[in-house]
Each structure stands twice: as structure tokens, then as C-alpha cells.
Amino acid sequence: MNIIETSDLTKKYGDFSAVSGIDMHIRKGTIYGFLGPNGAGKSTTMKMLLGLTKPTGGYFSIDGRRYPEDRTSILRNVGSFIEGPAFYGNLTGEENLEIIRKILGLPRAAVAAALKTVGLYEARKRPSRKYSLGMKQRLGLAGAIIGHPPILILDEPTNGLDPSGIHEIRELIRSLPKRYDCTVMVSSHLLSEIELMADDVGILNHGKLLYEGTFSGLRDFAADRGLPSKDLEDIFLSIIQEDNKSRGEIDR
Amino acid sequence: MSFSIEAKKVTRTGFYPAIILGGIIAAAVPLINIGARPENFVNRDGSTLAVILNANWSMVSMLNVFAVILGACVMWNVEYGERAIEKMRTLPLKMSSIVGLKGILLLTMALVPVILEHLSIVLCGYLWFAPESNFIFDATKNFIFSILMLLPVCGVMTAIASVCRNMWISLGIGVICVFAMTIMGGFDSFAVKIFPFSLPMITFAEAGETWPSYGTASLLETVIISIAAGIIWKLKVKSE
Ligand SMILES: Nc1ncnc2c1ncn2[C@@H]1O[C@H](COP(=O)(O)OP(=O)(O)OP(=O)(O)O)[C@@H](O)[C@H]1O
Ligand SMILES: [Mg+2]
Fold it and tell me: Which DSSP string do the residues of B46-69 spell out, in sequence order?
């Protein structure tokens, strides 16, 4: 069963299409890797799902709910982290989560639990403005998972983390569906990273969804087109390059 | 509870100390002004309250307006500084409730200077004048009237600062409006006096018989500003 579905979802800024007619299917209880180079439209798509920006075409449903009618109920059921951390710099990590806790009406213990989950408990009393980039990123993640929402939308959650931090957060994301019985949509530039986390992958380039499905399906997809099909990163790059060529762009 | 959230958000920004300190400075104005040369004031015509207000209120009310401008800027800088507002927009709450509660917080905090100033006015009356029997009653009326007159500027500044990502822009707009107000202060016209930035300068005695007109203007402006802020925010969200 698909918990998130989009149909012909489109976002145009003037006559520029940031997202053009994508049909996405995210299965319940899975991790969906949303892959694409810079400017592909990943953040824009995620923002549409959260109602932060209005689609100019098509529609989507999240757990049977539609935007804009069910906006509040969608937001209540989706934890999100979009385009980097967003927080009150003058408040401590703990105070920031306390605000989110109150808005969501969660029990008091939720704050400490979320801080521990992302490994920020020791630093909870420090002003979040003074956090390192990785710590801010963790605070953002804590804000997304604090309510144990059935759906998580995470936009490049490992951005700015050191290798051990990337590993740690990746393991955390991987454990989420079992831990909280939730579905995760996670974006990245790196197929290698998505491969380690996700069950399914959607590849986006210039606002178009080029591929959607499993990783073994992706190898077949590449083989069918005569593209290299051994190394996943090569597959990703060649699919993007082929798409760019077909648009008449010069390879980078 | 949502109000306490808004109140919490501005802790450690200097918001509370600045408004309280501003209030103390503004309250000191009549004490210093009259205390330095009481003989210049005690024999003036008019009631004790009128004499004290005439000598000090334009300065004091200007400080109040600046406190409101600064307060609004700080409140919204906290939202835009580290993109906190973007997080708020992904939570199940309405933007209009955040804007409205911030306006109420601003007005609540603006009460602090106004209370201190009126205490100081009463103190001046007893220290250097021989106040009439209705002095306290009139001071109380002026206090309530002053709060009423502050409503529109709290609304306008909340609305302006809420849409300006950059705090300096809203601060600039506020300061320019105060200067425009001082320049136009010479015009003895109702239309000029009810400008949100000029209203706080009016005292209850000055309004006299026409105080209900000022009261109505203030309330009406506040309603119009709230509706306008709502529309601006709708358009802003739609254009993203
Ligand atoms: N508000 C906007 N107005 C105009 N164009 C926009 C706006 N927001 C995004 N875009 C454009 O839409 C395209 C997709 O942007 P988006 O942020 O979704 O990409 P992304 O896949 O998240 O990229 P990255 O990996 O760099 O985060 C970009 O070309 C961007 O310039
Ligand atoms: Mg992005």
C-alpha cells in the first residue's frame, strides 16, 4: 500500500518548471530514497508535500489526506526536516524541542528522548546558536522525530556531518521504520548513501522522475539502456548524463 | 499556552530587559525634568496632570513608540535569524495565530513602560505640586487611554516586522514613520493625529470631548491592520 502518492505533481516558477509532472509512489513502512543532483527539485517536491509551497499542477495524497483541505492533519502526521536546520538560535537545544513538544501536545519525556536519540543530550543546555553544524543538523532531526510521526520527510539529513556522524544518522534513519512503525522519505545527492538506507529509490533530474523502484530494478533499467550497470554510482551518473544529453545540455 | 510559547521565544534576546530599561528611562523623564526646576512648573495654569503631561508626554510617548518598534523587530528577528519560522510552518498551527499572539505580547510588554510612567507622573504630582482631589482618577483615565492609543502602532509594527526577513528593514520603516510623525506633528488635523505612530502622543485631556473619536479610530485602525496583515500573509504564502 502506498502511503504517499503524487500524480502529475508540478511546480512552475514563471515558465521554469522546478518539478514537472512527477508520479511518485512511496510504500508504507519503507524508506524511500529521493535522489537527484543540485537543483533537481527534491526540496521543492518535499515542500509541496508539506504545503510550504503550492503545486501549480497535479495533486498528491498523504495517508489518504489531501492538500489543502487536510493541511493541519497532514502536518500533524508528518515529521520533517527541510533544507537544513531551522531553530531559535537564542534558545538551547532543549528549549527548542520544548516549543515543538508543546505545539504537538506531546508528553514531557519526549524532549529528553529525542535529544538522546540524536546524541545531543549532553549539549541540551547550550544555546543552539553555538552548536556546530553537525549539532544543528541533529537538533533539526530531533525536531522531526520527536513526535514519532507515521511519516518522516528528511531533506539531506546527513549534510554537513562528519563520516562517523553520517554513519550514525544513517543507522538511525534505517532503524526508524521498525522503531516507530513509520515511513521515511529521504533525499540525497549520493546514490551510495541512499543505497545503504533505502528500500526504494526515485531518481529526479531537472524536475523529472527518471526512475522509481528497487535497486535491483535500477540495474535492469540501466542494462536495458546499455548503460554501465555494475557500480550504482556510475548508474546514477550515467542516467543523469543521458537525460541531460537528451535535453541538449553539455556534459559536466 | 501558545502565548507562553511566544513569550519564551524571545528570552535571552534582550527583548524584556530592553523594554523594561526603556520604561525606566521614560519614567525618569518627568522626574528629572520637573525635579530639576519645579518652580518653572508649579505655578502654570491648568490641572496638575495637565501641567506634567504637557511638559513631558511628547518625549515619553516617543520613547514608548521606539520601544514598540524595537520590540517588534527583535520578536521577528528571532523567527527569521536561524529560519525558525520555516520549522513553525511545518507544524500543525496557523501563521495567523503566531502573528496575532506576537502582537498581543508586544502590547502586553508595552504596558510596562506605560505603568512606570504613570507611577512617575503621580509621584511628581505629590512631590512638587498640590494635586487636586481628582488627580489620581484623571491619571488612571490617561493611563487607560494611553494603552488604547498604543494598539495600532503595536499592530502595524507586528505586521511590518512579520513580513520583513531582515530586521533592519522593519527597524528603518519604523524610525522613518516616527520622523514623519514628528514633522507632521505641527498640523492640527484629526487625520494626521490618528496616524498609528502619532496616536500615542495624544493625552486624554488633549482629546477632551473628542476622546471617543480617538478611541474609535484606534480600534478601527487595529482591526484594519489585522485584516491587512492576514491578507498580506496569505499572498506571501501563496507566492512561494
Ligand atoms: N522560490 C523559488 N523561485 C524560483 N525558483 C526556485 C524557487 N525555489 C526553487 N527554485 C528553483 O527550482 C529548482 C529546484 O530547486 P530545489 O531546491 O528543489 O532543488 P534540490 O533538488 O533540492 O537541490 P539541492 O540538492 O541543491 O538542494 C532550482 O533550479 C531552483 O533554482
Ligand atoms: Mg534541496
Answer: S-HHHHHHHHHHHHHHHHHHHHHH
Mean pLDDT, 10 residues at a time, over chain A (252 residues)?
96 95 97 96 97 94 93 95 96 98 97 96 96 94 96 93 90 93 95 92 96 93 85 87 81 44
Contact A91 B93 (CB under 8 A): no
The confidence score (pLDDT) of residue A249 equals: 60
- Amino acid present at A247: R
For the domain covering A2-77+150-246, report its CATH number: 3.40.50.300
**Closest residue CA from atom 26 of ligand 1:** A38
Dihedrals phi, psi of A213, to nearest 5 degrees: 155, -160
Cα A38 to averaged position of ligand 2 atoms, centre (Å): 7
Identify the residue whose cell numbers are 489526506.
Answer: A65
Nearest to A208 by CA among A246, A234, A235, A252: A246
Closest partner CB to B87 (pick from A72, A87, A102): A87
- Tell me if residue B114 falls in helix, strand or coil: helix
User: Taking CB atoms and an 8 Å limit, are A103 and B9 in contact across chains?
Assistant: no
Hey, where are the domains in chain A? 2-77+150-246, 83-148
Q: How many CB atoms lie within 10 A of CB B209?
A: 6
Q: Give the rounded percent of residues in chain B with a pLDDT score beyond 90.
A: 86
Atom of ligand 1 nearest to the CA of A19: 14
Alpha carbon distance B85, B79 (integer Å)? 5
Distance A89 CA to ligand 1 centre (A): 25
Query: What is the extent of the structural domain holding B56?
Result: 3-239
Question: Does residue A83 come out as left (phi exceeding 0), alpha (psi in the -120 to 50 range) or beta?
Answer: left
Residues B81 and B46: their CA atoms lie apart, in Å, by 50
